[in-house]
Amino acid sequence: MDIKTLVLALALGNLSLCAALFFYEYESRKRLSMSTWAVAKQVQAVAWLLLYLRGMTPELFTIALGNVVLFAGVALDAAALWELLGRRIWKRWLLPILIPSCVAFVGAWLLGAPPGVRIAIASLVVGLLFLVGTAALARNRREASPLRGFLIVAMAILSVIVVLRGILTAAWPEGLGWISPELVQWAGVGALYLMMLTNAFGYLLLNREKLQGELERQQISDTLTDVPNRRGFYAALSPWMALARRPGQPTAIIVLNLDQFKRVNDDYGHPVGDIVLKAMVYVCKRQLRDSDLMGRLGGAEFAIQLPRTSLEDALMVAERIRNAIASMPVKAERAIINLTASLGVTTIRADDSMVSLFKRADLALQEAKQSGRNRVVQAQPDSVLEA
Known about the structure:
Elements: H1 3-27, H2 32-52, H3 59-84, H4 90-110, H5 115-137, H6 146-171, H7 181-220, H8 230-243, E1 252-258, H9 261-268, H10 270-286, E2 293-298, E3 301-306, H11 311-326, E4 330-331, E5 336-337, E6 341-347, H12 354-370, E7 376-378
């Protein structure tokens, strides 16, 4: 397979990928990073087609414009990787690299620079832009998945090969020892081809990995208040249930319920009720440590886990939370809503199950409600509950 056939394969491959992405994005709107990556593939398809037409159309299009468009496509590829991982660096990092690179390449072509010089410039630019994209994957390496680890290594190696092609072509156009110009050319083009494939499949797999992670997070997280839901809270509490069978500091549980929250929904509507819940969670979190965990059990009922906290200290925390909620008026569109909360407090016992633990805490919560609301009640130590 000669180099021109490789260029055609890249052009046709990007065109087929663009067609698939069109129907994928047509069905539903996708996140910005996917749109940026789709545009990158469209731009690259145009660039490879222009480069393939070399010798059949004017060099202004096949060499000058083709390489400039290729630079833009690779820069968009790097931008999409950064956006996928939560940062947009197009204007800050990539434009300062892209614009001088395009000027340098077009200037070399206008001045009649030898093909080796133009190849060197193109290789250095493309390799550098790919390294910028690789740098996005290398962020927070300790939290990276095995897939990201593989892509970091593969893209870094291939980018370095592309850059070395440019350096060797510019510094030693006649070759260096056993390293012939043909070997340098094939190594560079082969690395570029593998880079395009690695980037395409790697990006799609990373995007799928991210979506899968978001789906798993939604299964254990309450989307309104951004705290664990019942399932997520129980999962996080399970190890502490096991630790309660060992000697040491206890783990406390607070069950909290907003008083007369149904009236808020009935009088002001569910959107206002959502605002109230989010404000209440925010206030509670300000009273907690980083190691504490708050979860939503359902409706306006929440649970708080206080690791290594005695019952006396947990009662103090609960009272602090109660005071904070009572002194927090929530501003809604039509009114200022004053809130109160009732709280039941207990600690995990060695013989507890999830059922017995929350039954005991719920009994304390119900006692707080029946005693007039807006108060903290300690679970009775002699409560006998059926698991």
